[in-house]
Amino acid sequence: MDLDPKNGDPKPSQNPQPPLWGALDQPVPEMDLNPKMGTPKSSGPRLGCPRSTSAHSHIRGLGLDEALEPRQVSQGMTAIAMGLAQALGPDTPFTAIAGSEIFSLEMSRTEALTQAFRRSIGVRIKEETEIIEGEVVEIQIDRPATGTGTKVGKLTLKTTEMETIYDLGTKMIESLTKEKAPRRDVITIDKATGKISKLGRSFTRARDYDAMGAQTKFVQCPDGELQKRKEVVHTVSLHEIDVINSRTQGFLALFSGMDPHLTHI
Predict the structure, then answer these.
(1) Where is the TIP49 P-loop domain positioned along the sequence (predicted)?
(2) pLDDT class of 231 with cuts at 50, 70, 90
(3) Would 150 be classed as within a structural domain?
């Protein structure tokens, strides 16, 4: 700043500049926007302005294009995923979730995604167990007259080579009643846990006038001895193991046939 030598006042500048507040009254130049990205168009890179980059390949594979916008619907992406899951087989876990399942008041988004990932990871566990496999010939249940005593009964099983009668206790009677295994059905009994599984109806006792549903499965009558050792393969997911371990029965509940249910962990 130059000062006047006579009175010490500042001299006026030769090239006066408009005040800063005057720039606020100037109109802002219009700017063309990219319809995809929503960013201003430019003829080339400018100093201080970041260059727009395209989306990564794995993001585009999730249904987004290079502009991070969703693609058109009905493109068959869900059908391809379901087809791949069916081609992998029933032993390969596949989890299909919707976006509305992630947002919940009872569970955080991190926990919901963690459970979805762990449901998609399967583990095969091989177990050699001793079972009793045969065709049901007759079931006799003796109920007390008072209705409050202990129920006892007898179960007759047969194969193509032998036939044996087993004594039943209260728990085995309840298991047979729950499984609904009548005569002419082929069942297996796990000697360690007492679990009863119905394999199907025997061909030898099938009759034309029997009423049956479309889901009825016919199997051959077992051959050999009733008691045999068999290797059983359990296919479970990591989430099912987490749920089972959170129960009081522990990991042994997996081999007893308990169905893991989604609860809090």
Answers:
(1) 73-258
(2) confident
(3) yes
Inside any domain, residue 164: yes
Global pTM exceeds 0.85: no
Count of the separate structural domains present in the chain: 1
**Nearest-5° Cα angle at 13, 12 to 15:** 140
41 found inside a domain = no
User: What pLDDT sits at residue 63?
Assistant: 62
Choose among 153, 160, 158, 152: nearest CA to 139: 153
Q: Is residue 87 part of a domain?
A: no
Residue 245 or 16, more confident: 245
Q: How far apart are CA 67 and CA 70, in angstroms?
A: 9
